[in-house]
Specification:
358 residues; alpha/beta; Nucleotidyltransferase, domain 5; 2 domains; 5-stranded mixed β-sheet; 12 helices; 19% strand; globular; binds 5'-O-[(R)-(carboxyoxy)(hydroxy)phosphoryl]adenosine; binds zinc ion
Length: 358
């Protein structure tokens, strides 16, 4: 089945053409085209995504991307399925993709009444869940645990098979990507903050400052990240006296702490919480595989930390993390999730659903 997929939930306009085959338990994908028009430069001056600017950019980019796909197919586009993100995301941004998909579908049907092309709404989070199925040949074994870490979500899932899962935990406040972006702003780094903090942290000492590890010892699978960002804010504001040194268990004098040390120590706090909670879930579920997806999964230092802890705890666990281009938003993951939804015969209303969840 050939799938044309469209993604406009946030600040990336993306379109892909993907061939899919196989049953619901083991879907397989071949990428024909995977286009992303990033809006990062547009939103950078504002330090975050501005919904109406995102809408304007999507409206401008969608026809351009579609034309590139058409051109690559010598203007003979055949798609069995059009898959479009309906949520979660920014409502005005979501509508641009949905309307584009609807218009395209109508036009195709008008030109050819016998056409069997279907149109399906996709949950963006399912895209992140299926992203690791887009590449590699390593077999996903079940049960599995899945950690979705993006700009808007931090979710832990117990995955029975590719078509069935249960949410076991999520953030009670900020998402981990949001925490990265807000902390980056405190450090005067540009948007999006995740890659900037990761880069800066390479020159820092992860043990320089002991930032809090919220909820790390709670026996649930929920997360909390807003306190961590606030702690970085207080770290800047507080008097750099003896009490301060004790409170943050500083490994060096306050005036010797660099911005890179703050970034590295911040990341270490994030890594400790994410790995502790996720691996606890892995043990509870008796997972054979761990899937990680979403923009924050692109962080190589986080991937290394997971590998280190899996080894340290002697877990027999296969780690599935997509390459960075499939971690951050793109339309290939929407095609993958669209295919599974199609196989499941899952009907979703073709309306923007800003707060859609898993
Ligand atoms: O999945 P995504 O592209 O969009 C959403 O669905 O939200 O995730 C975007 C988030 C942003 O918060 C960004 O700062 C974060 O992913 N991110 C990273 C890295 N690359 C992107 N966070 C940490 N390290 C990275 N290398
Ligand atoms: Zn995303």
């Amino acid at each position: 089945m050939r799938i044309l997929s469209i993604e406009t939930s946030c600040d990336e306009t993306a379109m892909a053409l993907v061939d899919a085959k196989g049953g619901i338990k083991n879907p397989r994908f071949k990428l024909i085209k995977n286009l992303v028009a990033s809006q990062i430069e547009v939103h950078k001056p504002f330090g975050g995504v501005v919904p109406n600017l995102a809408k304007r950019e999507h409206l401008k980019n969608l026809p351009i991307l579609f034309d590139q796909i058409l051109k690559a197919n010598r203007y003979k586009l055949k798609a069995d399925l059009i898959a479009v993100t309906v949520g979660p995301g920014l409502e005005p941004a979501l509508w641009t993709g949905i309307n584009f998909a609807r218009d395209l579908y109508r036009e195709l049907k008008t030109n050819n009444k016998k056409l069997t092309t279907k149109l399906i709404g996709v949950n963006h989070l399912e895209g992140h869940l299926y992203s690791s199925k887009l590449e590699g040949t390593k077999k996903l074994e079940f049960p599995a645990a899945a950690l979705i870490i993006s700009g808007g979500h931090t979710i832990l899932l117990s995955v029975k098979n590719m078509a069935s899962w249960k949410k076991i935990g999520e953030t009670v406040d900020d998402a981990v990507g949001e925490c990265y972006d807000k902390t980056a702003r405190l450090l005067n780094l540009s948007y999006p903050g995740g890659p900037e903090i990761e880069k800066l942290a390479k020159d820092g000492d992860p043990n320089a400052i002991q930032f809090p590890r919220p909820m790390i010892h709670q026996k649930n699978y929920d997360f909390s990240f807003s306190g961590l960002k606030t702690s970085v804010l207080y770290f800047f504001r507080e008097n750099k006296n003896e009490e301060f040194v004790k409170k943050y268990k500083l490994s060096k004098k306050p005036d010797k702490i660099s911005k890179a040390d703050i970034a590295a120590s911040f990341q270490q706090a994030v890594f400790d919480v994410l790995t502790a909670k996720t691996l606890r879930a892995v043990k509870k579920i008796k997972a054979k595989s761990l899937i990680i997806g979403g923009g924050v999964a692109a962080n190589r230092s986080l991937q290394k930390e997971f590998k280190k802890k899996i080894k340290k705890e002697n877990l027999k666990l296969n780690l599935f993390v997509p390459s960075p281009k499939f971690c951050t938003d793109n339309a290939a993951i929407i095609a993958a999730a669209g295919y599974v939804s199609f196989l499941k015969n899952k009907k979703r209303s073709l309306k923007a659903q800003a707060n859609l969840n898993l």
